[in-house]
From TrEMBL:
The keyword Electron transport applies. This is Cytochrome c oxidase subunit 2. It is found in: Cell membrane; Membrane. InterPro entries: CcO_II, CcO_II-like_C, Cupredoxin, Cyt_c_oxidase_su2_TM_dom, Cyt_c_oxidase_su2_TM_sf. Residues 59-159 form the Cytochrome oxidase subunit II transmembrane region profile domain. It is an enzyme of class 7 (translocase). Its EC number is 7.1.1.9.
Amino acid sequence: MYGFLIGVGVLLLLSIIWMVYRIQTLVSVVKGSDKKVASGSNKINAILFVLFLVGTGILMFWYSIKEFDNYQLPVASEHGVITDQLFWVTMAVTGVVFLITHILLFVFPYKYQYKENRKASFYPDNNKLEVIWTAVPGVVLAGLVLTGWMAWSDITAPAPENAHVVEIMGYQFAWDVRYPGKDNVLGDYDYRLITASNSHGVDFTDKNAIDDFPSPKVVIPKGEPVLFKIRARDVLHSVFAPHMRLKMDAVPGMPTRFWFVPTKTTEEMRAELNNPEFEYEIACTEICGRGHFSMKKVIEVVEPEAYQKWLAEQKSFIQQNPSLAENLPAEMKELADIQLSESKK
């Protein structure tokens, strides 16, 4: 380790000495004490600019084509198709501008390298040119922003009335999932009610919470709208389901939402990818602490019939832990007892 640091130090020292020498040379040129304005390194540097352009350009295109399937994942939601279209339109527009500007950036040092018989042209302004290069990007960017805003408005608009509701709660360092039961209405929650046996902080004095139930994974039906209600228990997290093109921050004290329609079941995606072990997943894309890497939750997309069957088999929080109903008011206790009696049938 020390040998490496010494080597780096020597390299930096040599670089500093070389830079001081070059600065002295340039100062002497400015003062006129050195009649040699351009050395052989001027032409070498100009050629290196072009070689760097060609080399990195080839590397960029090769890597983009080679890894295309790794960063362009199959789409598994309706709005994901629109999201991808917006992405590739934006990529085309900015990509063309990127290529043009960088080709000019690296070719100009070669084309206009110093020559004793060449004089620079004085070109102070061109109002017409300035209007064009201001107006064209403005119009293009306005178009991109407008189409993106329209897609975002659809995603964040109120979900259809028949949407299946799922609550995703992030905390250090996992996701908890809560379903609303048969009434499809989630019960209230309060962070002050969070205990070891009630990690969601569900308020069971709310009758809508009586049939709420947890799930170790997110199960959703294909072809039907799904509404994710998202919140965080401690710090900022972010719900990211790449195949669904879904990303939404989970913010403490500020619930967010995202609704979508899955288009491929887990089994269909496994067949498409020829990967029998494939699973959709939710990952966290906010650096939320030392255990950030472990925040993963499996999403299983099934046919509507299989979803209804799975839904009917689930047991509520109270059915799984009757002690949650011990201190409820009489009216709520009665509803909880009904839940418990149903679980025994």
